[in-house]
Structure formats: structure tokens, C-alpha cells
Design a protein that fits this description.
The complex is a heterotrimer of chains A (168), B (123) and C (344).
Chain A: H1 2-22, H2 26-46, H3 50-74, H4 77-82, H5 90-107, H6 121-127, H7 129-140, H8 142-167
Helix pairs in contact in A: 1-2, 2-3, 6-7
Chain B: H1 11-34, H2 63-87, H3 89-92, H4 94-116
Chain C: H1 10-49, H2 65-75, H3 86-102, H4 121-142, H5 146-169, H6 171-177, H7 182-191, H8 202-215, H9 240-265, H10 273-278, H11 287-308, H12 314-343
Helix pairs in contact in C: 1-2, 1-9, 1-11, 2-9, 3-4, 3-9, 4-5, 4-9, 5-8, 5-12, 6-7, 6-12, 8-9, 8-12, 9-11
The chains are: A mainly alpha (168), B mainly alpha (123), C mainly alpha (344).
Chain lengths: 168, 123, 344
Amino acid sequence: MLEFFFGYLSLVIIIFSLLVVLSKNAIHSVLYMLVMFFHVAGIYLLLQAEFLAAVQIIVYAGAILVLFLFAIMLLNLREELSAEQLTDGWPASLAVVAGLLLTLMLSLGGFTTTFNGSWSPEKIKEITFTKALGQALYTGYILPFEVASIILLVAIVGAIVLAKRRLN
Amino acid sequence: MPGRYLPTEYLPVAIFIAISIAFGLGALIMGSMVRLRRPYREKLMPYESGIDPVGEPRVRFSIRFYIIAMLFVVFDVEAIFMYPWAIVFDKIGLFALIEMIIFIVILLVGYVYALKKEAFRWE
Amino acid sequence: MFEFLIRPGSFDLFLNIGIIILKIAVVIGVVMLHVAYATYFERKVIGHIQVRMGPMEVGPHGILQPIADMLKLFFKEDIIPEKADKPVFYFAPIISLMAALSSLAVIPFFDGFVIADINIGLLFILALSSLGSYGLILSGWSSDSKYSFLGGLRSSAQVISYEIAMGMSLVGVMIMAGSLNLTEIVKAQAAYPTGMYAIPQFLGFFVFIIAAIAETNRSPFDLPECESELVAGYFVEYSGMRFALFYAAEYIGMIIMGSLAVTCFLGGWTIPAFITAVLPFLKYVPGIVWFALKLYVIIFFYYWIRATLPRYRYDQLMAIGWKVLIPLSLLNIVITGIIKIMVD
């Protein structure tokens, strides 16, 4: 049953990712990406990572994709619509991607599905994923957490500096 | 083998989402079967207070909308960091509070910068 | 791959799915009835506040007005602007409705009745309400009209601005309850001395209520629809059933935000223990009654505000969201944390 859901989610993710890339209209691409993000959230659920599933929707679908929409609307879409959807060098890119995919598939055998560290799936299920994440993040990973705030600070400053000339 | 447990408690959520989409589609399809449709050119023009539309509908807009969206992404991520923090707060205690205050203060620097640059001011 | 369908236990699976679908149908049915009559009571309440009668024509005291409205919208001609982006135009109201309606899946209406008892119920509602901005921005963009486009832009900027304050105002509740599961939040409140978090968390409650009004585009923050400037904002070009879906989504959103306020701040289906200590017979009133009563009070409050306050200007709206509500909710988080440590 797990395999069935995993297969369905993966299939939809692959199809909609292709649609995102191949669609001529950028707004349609965003809609395809929205459907894709929902299915990625489904994959997180299958991995017991329910908090990450929520983050996938809140941050990626609810915030970053909305930013994309604003950015697309700032540009003039009419010219984009008549452009070719594939650039001239697409066979070469396809070959590179196919090569990468092959490498990945060959290396899949090297992965094992056991867990590492002190958090077993049973333990996570017992205290719920979000609490497990909170305890791990806010006791063991303090420095990365505070560094994250500095990265966010840089993002604020960057966004304003980029548009500053227009603001004043 | 993805994961070890089937998230069965999410099955109703998936069914609910499917039903609500079907509900919306169903209402539209039922409506389309009974209503009449007599379009003519004027009816299909976008509404612009009664006169013919002028120029492109998708006008250029202020860069401020983009800045707001960008700041929204940053503060949304900040809020995301608070949720798991909040529910383990009673287990970690004072240490967690100090961590979060440092986090908030660093971001407040950015907030004050945005405030000084008048990113939140609209004319 | 499909062997799970023919295993002995699969009958239980189908039975369970059948029960889930039945529960969902009941919830959607009851909520849609509430939506229909929320429009009626809105007109009645605002009418009486402004010393008018409100709808009076259809049935006694206009009680059948929502049904007449529904029939009218159902048979109305569906007009789509010639140059509209058809697929996006079709899907925008469905996204709006889906985002609003699906949030009902995690709301505990009374003890033991919740369609999906998930551990991240609160985040699920926040996630779906963040999808609400798609309906606004996509309908505005696809309609091929200046009014829609500007209305969609303005309203999506408004919705995302208030979303942050709303999410952060709930962090205080999360600290106190130690959970994101809405049922557990209600139970934690019932065990708390005041019986509801609105009293210690008054700052969070205040920010949440204001942010919720702005999230659902209600007056005095109804700039997306301001009929005098943008004629109706993002859904100018929508008519008939498509318009009805947006309209329903707005009212469902109101019910969702009200239910969230009831579950997170007002004790959900429970009543404070100090009240039952004085009046023990109140214990026998079913939980759904308390839930509904609290929800109606909040919805009445929405109407009252709409009838009383004038609309804000757009710059004022953005200033309230970014300069007042976000600092206040951050302050609330820090204060809640400090008090929690001192009490423990």
C-alpha cells in the first residue's frame, strides 16, 4: 500500500515537473508547480515528516510561489508567449540530464533504508514528528538555527537594496 | 520502501480535498447545464465603467508589491521556526527562550532596516 | 500492487472510507447551510443596526431570501471575457473554495468529532489559508481587466501581510498547549484554570481576530472588494455560479477563522470549570451547542464591525499589518515565554 501511494505521488510529481518546464505560459507553470508541491508534501507524509509536509505547503506553495507570481506579473508576459518553449541546445541538455539520471539510478543500490542516530521511526511516531524535530533542532543544532536567522536578515536587506533606487 | 508507517490519519484529509474540488466542479457543471448563454461582443468585453477598455489590462505595478512578497517569505520562514520551538518549549525551558530571543533580535535588525527604508510605507 | 484491495481486511477499509465520506458530507452540508444563512443574518443584523428591516420580501421576514439568491445565481448567465485566460479563469474559484472548505477537515466540532485528527491540525489550517491568495491573484490576472488585476494584486498583498501576524499570534497558544493538534489544544484549555486561553493570551487573541478579519477580506479591511474604487476587485468579471463559489469561499473562510478562534482561544466545545462549579446542570449541554454559540458570537462580531467602522485606506492597512500587528505578536511570544518559565 505504501508502494502504491509512493508510485502515484512520484508519477504525478514527474509529470507535473515536466509540464512546469514545457509550458509556454509562466502562470500556467506556477499552477502546475502548485499541484506538484502538494504531491511532494504527500511524499513527506509517507516519510512520517508531517511538519515538513506542512512547511512544504506554507513556505513553498504559500509564500515562494506567490513571490514567483508577483515576479512574473512584474514582467510583460505578452512577449514571452510567442517565444519558443525549448532553446536550440536542448538535445545536449537532455543528454546531460539523462547521464545524471543514469548515475543516480546506478548509485541507488548504495542506499539502505535503515535509520541513523537516536531517533527511530517508532520513537518519532510516539512523541510526534514536530516535537522530535523541535527537541533535536533546539538542543543539538543551536548554531545552524541562529545562522538561519542571519541568512533571513541578509534576504531582507538584499530585497530592499535591490529595489532601493525605486523606493526613494 | 518509503517510510515505515502508512499515514492513515491523513486519508480523510485527502478525501476531503478531493470532495471539495468535486463539489466546486459539480456546482459549475450543474450550473452550466441549466443556465442560458447568449453572448455578444459588448458582453464579452472587460468591464471598465461602461466605456471601451483602453490599453493593456496587465498594467505595470509598483515594485513595493514585490518587496512585500519578499519580506513575507522571510517572515513566514521565521514563523515556521517558531512552531516546533513553541510546542517543545516546556521541555527545554529558559534555554529555548534565550535562543529564540537571539533569533528574533537578529531579525528585528532587518525589520528596523526595512522600516527605516520605508518599505512598509505606501503613497 | 492492488492486492490490498482483496485482502480480508479490505472490507473494513471500504467501510471506513464510507464512514469518512458520510461524515464529510454531513459537515459540508451543515456548513453550506450556515453559509447560506450567514448571508441572510448579515443583511438582517446590519439592517437593524442601521435602523432598516433588511430583506423582508421572500417568505416571512425574508427567511427564504438565501434560497432565492441561490436559485438566481444558479440560473444566471456565465460571462467570460473574450481575452481571459480560460483555464486559469476556471480554476481560480475552485482553488479558493478548496482552500476554504478543506480546512474543515481538522476542526473538532465537539468531543471526538473531527474528520481528520492529525498532529499538525493548526498548521494545516494555516497552510490552506495561505493558498487563499492564489484564488485572488489568479482570478485577477486571468480576467483580462484592469480592475480585476489591481484588485487581485492588492488583496493578495494584504492577505500575505496579515498571514504572518496571524501565524505568530497563535505561537502563544502553542507554547501554552504544547501541541499543534486542535483537539489537544481544546483539552489543554479545559484543564487550564480560566478554561480558555483568551484571558492569558488576550494580546494574541486581539492580533488573531484583527488578522482573521483581514485574511477573510472582511470590512473594515475589505479593500479587495471596495465597490466604490475597484467596482468589486478581483472578481469583477465573474458571474453566476463562478461568482457564487468566491462568495461561498469568503463565508466559509469566515466560519473557519471563527472556528479557529473558538478552538484556540475560547475553549472549543468545553465551558470553563468555574462556571460548571456554580451551575452544574450546564455540564449536560452537548459540546456542539457551546461550539456553535461561541462561533455565532464571533460571526456576529464580524457583522457588528462591518456595520460600524469605515474602510481603511490601503496605506493604513499595510501599516497596521506590518508596523503594529507583527511587533505585537512578537512581543506576545516573548512575554508568554517569560511567564511560562516564571510559573513553572
